[in-house]
Amino acid sequence: MASVNYLETRIDVYAYLVIAKSDVLLIDTGVGEGNRYIERIYEPCRSPIADELARYGLLTTDVSVVVNSHLHFDHCGNNQLFPGAEIFVQADELSAARTPRYTVTEWFDYDGARLNTVSGDMEITAGVKLLSSPGHTPGHQSVLVETDSGNILVAAQAAYTAEEYQRGGDVTQAHQGLEEQYLRTISQLKSNMAHEIYFSHDSTAATCTR
Ligand SMILES: [Zn+2]
Questions:
Q1: d(CA 45, CA 41)
Q2: Distance of alpha carbon 68 from alpha carbon 58, whole angstroms
Q3: pLDDT digits over 127-146, tens only?
Q4: End-to-end CA distance of the chain
Q5: Are 32 and 18 in contact (CB under 8 A)?
Q6: To the nearest 5 percent, what fractions of the chain are helix, strand and coil?
Q7: Which pLDDT score is estimated for 193?
Q8: What is the mean pLDDT of the chain?
Q9: How far apart are the CA of 201 and the centre of ligand 1, in A?
Q10: Residue 109's CB: how many other CB atoms inside 10 A?
Q11: How many other CB atoms sit within 10 Å of the CB of residue 155?
Q12: What total of structural domains would you count in the chain?
C-alpha cells in the first residue's frame, strides 16, 4: 500500500484488510503525512488507503477495527483516517512508543484516538484473534484469521520476509535485547499451523512449515 526509499533501497509497506462476519478490520495503516523528517529521509510513495478500500466497495467509515501490529511510523501513520474504529494495540507497545525517538507520536496519540490496549492473546471479533508476538518490538502483535479453508496468519513484522520466517528467523530485525524472544515468537507463530502467512514488508506469503 506504500513504499519508502531509504539509503537507495525501496521498502514496501503493506496493510491488510480482513472482512469478518461482524467487523471490517484493517491491520496497520501505513506511513502518514506531514512529518518533514520522514518525508526527507524516506521519500514515501503512497497508495491511498481510501482508494484501496474502494476497490472492495468499502469506505474508511466501514472500518470498525484497526489493529496496529506495532507503532513504528510505517505501521500506524494513518490511524486518524478511521475515527470510528477501535484501535487495538498491545500495552507493552504503547509504553515503548511513548519513549523518545520510537515513532511519530502524533500519528497514534491524538485527540479522539480510540486506543484499546491488550496484554497477550485475545479474540477481538468472531474468528479473528490477536497473537502477542514480541521481538521486532516489545509489544508486536500478529493476527490469526479463521477462514472456511483454514487459518491465515498476518504475521506482520514478526519476521521481515517469508523466506526468513520459513528458516526460523534472523535476529537482525529484532529490537535490541529481544533477539531470543524474536526467534521464540517465530517458532510459536508456526505452531498455529496457518496455511498462509503474510508480512508487512514482503508481498510473498509463506506457507505452513514447522
Ligand atoms: Zn517495524
A1: 12
A2: 20
A3: 999 999 999 999 999 999 99
A4: 30
A5: no
A6: 25, 30, 45
A7: 86
A8: 94
A9: 9
A10: 16
A11: 29
A12: 1
What's the one-letter identity of residue 178?
A: L
Report the separation in Å between the CA atom of 41 and the middle of ligand 1, taken as the mean of its atom positions: 16
Instruction: Look at residue 8 in the predicted model and tell me its pLDDT.
Output: 66
**What are the two backbone dihedrals, phi and then psi, of residue 7, each rounded to the nearest 5 degrees?**
50, 45
Q: For residue 86, give the H/E element and its range.
A: strand 86-90
Looking at residue 6, what is its pLDDT? 61
What CATH number is attached to the domain comprising 99?
Answer: 3.60.15.10
What letter represents residue 164's amino acid?
Answer: E
The letter for the amino acid at 62 is: D
Centre of ligand 1 from the C-alpha of residue 46, in Å: 17
The three three-digit cell numbers of residue 65, written as one number: 477495527
Sequence-ordered list of residues with C-beta below 8 angstroms from that of 15, at least 6 positions apart, any chain = 1, 26, 27, 28, 29, 30, 49, 52
Distances (CA, A) of 197 to 65, 135, 139, 152: 20, 17, 19, 6
Q: What is the pTM of this model?
A: 0.94
Distance 116 CA to ligand 1 centre (A): 20
Task: Give distance in angstroms: CA of 25 to centre of ligand 1.
Answer: 20
Domain of residue 177 covers: 2-207
Task: Say how many Å lie between the CA of residue 70 and the centre of ligand 1.
Answer: 7
The CA 69 to ligand 1 mean position distance, Å, reads 9
Query: Which residue type occupies 137?
Result: T
Helix (H) or strand (E) holding 55: none
